[in-house]
Amino acid sequence: MNKLRIPLVAAAVLALAACSGKQPGDTIIKMQAEVCETGDPSVMSKYVSAKSQPAVGMISAIMAEPEKAEQMKTQIKAECENAKPIEILETKIDGDRATVRYTNPEGKEETDTLILEDGEWKLDFNLNK
Fold first, then answer.
1. For residue 43, is pLDDT > 80?
2. For a surface tag, which of 23, 43, 46, 83 has the fewest beta carbons within 10 Å of its beta carbon?
3. 99: number of Cβ within 10 Å
4. What is the CATH number of the domain that holds 91?
5. Vertex 98, ends 94 and 99: CA angle to 5°?
């Protein structure tokens, strides 16, 4: 009996360790939650890779104009009220790159690439999509 218990305990510990680490999909979920909470898409800057920062910079420039910022926040808040929760469908990790397939807040399937930067998974936008 004890011989069987040790492998089972070891398997349970490994499974918990795998689940407790930050997964690439967590970045997508946290970013969406913060954008919805604040209504400010410029908060995305902390969730995207260094090379993707110019895309967020364009959003930040729009948010610097008070009238446009208010319109955007109102639109985001309205969209978030009807948003479905993001569901991670599949995650493939290959070293410091990951591909995450998920359903977006509109219920449509999307796939994004993330890279590991300074120990954090960051969205790596392909602006040529």
1. yes
2. 46
3. 14
4. 3.10.450
5. 120
